[in-house]
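Appendix B. Chain record.
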Amino acid sequence: MISRVSDRLTTSRIGRALSQQVGNRLSRLGEGRLAGNLAWMATSQLGNRLLRILATVVVARMLGPEVYGLAALVLAINEMVHVLSHGGISGKLVQADDDELPRLRTSGYWLNWWLCGALTVVQVLAAFPMAAFYGNADLIAPIICLAFSYLVLPSATIQAALLMRDNRLGAIARVDMAQSIADTGLTLLLALSGAGLWALVLPKLLVVPVWAWLIRRQHPWRIQGRPTLAGWREILRFGKHLVWIDLLTALRNNIDYLIVGRLLGVEALGVYYFAFNAGLGLAQGLIRAATASLYPHLCELRDDLVAMRARLRRSLGLILACMVPIVLLQASLAPWYVPWVFGQKWAALGAIPILMLLSLSALPRLVSEAMSQWLRAGNRPELDTRAQTLFTLGYGLALAGATQLGLSQDGLIEVAAAVSLSQLLFAVALTGWCLRRMSSNGHGGNAMPASPSTACLPSALEQ
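Structure tokens predicted for this chain:
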């Protein structure tokens, strides 16, 4: 066991070195700021995912698919509520002019407290009907437990947004890494002590104060003056598209769990959840790092659509050059490493082909996220909202249909195939649509009118 941990620590050091080399190479290619941000975020996400893989290796050998299924439902429901916790506040602060920033910081701080308090009550009350819907009372206590994390977020949300505004992604990456270390350590400790489901749930609550404390140490801003909500209308106008898109994204990221858990049962969901985390977990971390770095990089050229499009093309090409080999290697080696690393029982349960299909969906996900960031940075969030809404509806129907199609054979391979195919079709359609709509906007594709409803909350601000 000690040798395995040592191997993973060595791998982490190698990963950091590779990330620095990638950053240096990108800098020489003329994308210095993106390279710096991407190297920081990629290093953080690589470390995070290596830690999660370590936790998954231990937990997968100790817990069965039913516990994994329950954890998937609890965390999916929590994420659906969590995306509402920023209310567009962070995105508005990233985009705001310097002269309006002091007023919006104060208003956003108090608005965030009101919003997170309301969400705590909503999630507590939602625990009971969700348990009834899935026919499992074991869901109630974990869902209620995670609801109290919202009461910690407002203490550091404004500081996190200001760090993003200042393009200090290195600070955010360091905080994310520390949070992941605490999360992994608690998960392993609880799993080894026989905590069962709580080993996967309780650390998500306990690390939030760690995140808040570290973020506050990174930025000196503190609330001053009397409570006020002045400026809430500006934040609402600005954030409504972002909140809706983030909600759609969370639904799309979790709707497969919700459908599989309802139609195929908790045990089948456990197999699917394991395959998703083992196969797509690393790629999702890299996608998160890439899109978090890409957004401020594109926003620097928000008044020149032609230059922004050229920067997107160069940046996306560089990111794909790094991502494609990783994804293909991970998918092709799944038959070898799944039984060896995670245990033969997952191979016997049929997780390998599911894992391979889900791994391949990472590439179209990356392209779709990049197009979404381009629309937001280019003052066209309404186009992103429209596209994401249509895709989420079609995605949900495709997954439900695939589940029903494969009921006689547990349906999981059909669901994984539907996930990959839907993501591919959406990436192709969104790319073509964006190129047509963004190119036809304005006079010759140049300056676009500023809009108070334009911005992006980078995923690095999410816990």
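Further analysis of this model is presented in Appendix C.
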